[in-house]
Amino acid sequence: MPERISPLTFAVAASLLVASLSGCGTINEKVSAGMGDYIPQWAGGLPGDAPPRPGTAQYDAWMKERERQRLMPAADRAKEGQAQPQASGSADAIR
């Protein structure tokens, strides 16, 4: 047995390892898509203001709220948008 591993052998082994690991995400698209929900935002996960996933109850409620805001006059939307940050700011002050 040779004491040294040839660079070509090492390169082939490394490329096979990378290829096999990159293929894991394509095995099941639901698993790979769901794993993104568990990655923290600071590590490149979903931002805090990302909409919910389609097909969930939260998504249906989000779409209803979005449609309600779309049908609302622009002046009322601006007033409502200014009122929401104040309400969340007071909730943060309570914590």
Distance between the termini: 66 Å
Tell me about the largest β-sheet.
Answer: none
Low-confidence parts lasting 5 or more residues at pLDDT below 50? 86-95
Order of helices and strands: HHHH
Describe the SSE topology.
Elements: H1 7-23, H2 29-35, H3 57-71, H4 74-94
Features:
disordered C terminus, 63% helix, 95 residues, mainly alpha, 4 helices
Descriptive notes:
This protein has 95 residues and is mainly alpha-helical. It has 4 helices and no strands. The model is unreliable at 86-95 (pLDDT under 50).
Short recap of the structure:
The chain has 95 residues and is mainly alpha-helical. It has helices at 7-23, 29-35, 57-71, 74-94.
